[in-house]
Amino acid sequence: METLKKIVSNQYFPAAAVLTAVLLFWAVGLLGGLSLLHNNQPPLTTLTWMLFVYAAAVLTPLAGILAAADLLRRWRRNRDAETAYAGYLEDQDSIVQQVVPGHAGEEPAVQHAAPPAPAASQPKKTAKQAGRKQAA
């Protein structure tokens, strides 16, 4: 059950499910899925089935292309994120391993940023100018 939860909550699951359904639809169609047309059915049933198959034949390629593009986009994004994270870890290792210039055994001097310059002085507001209306 835990494996099923992992599969369903996977980010690739929706697009993979759509792509699987599209491929299954076309596989069934190629293997004789239109056999309903060979049977003696009422015209309304045949027409409904034909409209369904026509809509599916038009929409499933679009859905399949969008699902494949989504899978590819997610795979590339995850691959790029892993590469960036590996580069980040390498940068952190190189920063830690850098030798600090200076005398041996001395702590390096820490430079602090200068405090921000004070803003232009503005006149202070009195209680009456605070912006609130006072009760009369």
Q: How does this model look, in words?
A:
- The chain is mostly helical and 136 residues long.
- The chain has a domain at 9-96.
- The chain is built from three helices and no strands.
- The chain is elongated, with a radius of gyration of 34 Å.
- The protein starts with a helix and ends in a 39-residue tail after the last helix.
Provide the fold topology.
Blueprint: H1 2-8, H2 13-30, H3 43-97
Helix pairs in contact: 2-3
Defining key terms:
0% strand, mainly alpha, 136 residues, single chain
Largest sheet: none
Q: Whole-Å distance between the termini?
A: 71 Å
Report the C-alpha radius of gyration, rounded.
34 Å
Q: Tell me, what's the shape?
A: elongated
Mean pLDDT: 76
Helix content: 55-70%
How many helices does DSSP assign?
3
- Number of strand elements: 0
Contiguous low-pLDDT stretches (5 residues minimum) are: none
SSE pattern: HHH
Strand percentage, roughly?
Answer: under 5%
By helix and strand content, what is the structural category?
A: mainly alpha
Biased composition (Basic residues): 125-136
Region (Disordered): 105-136
Transmembrane segments: 12-37, 49-69
Keywords: Membrane, Transmembrane, Transmembrane helix
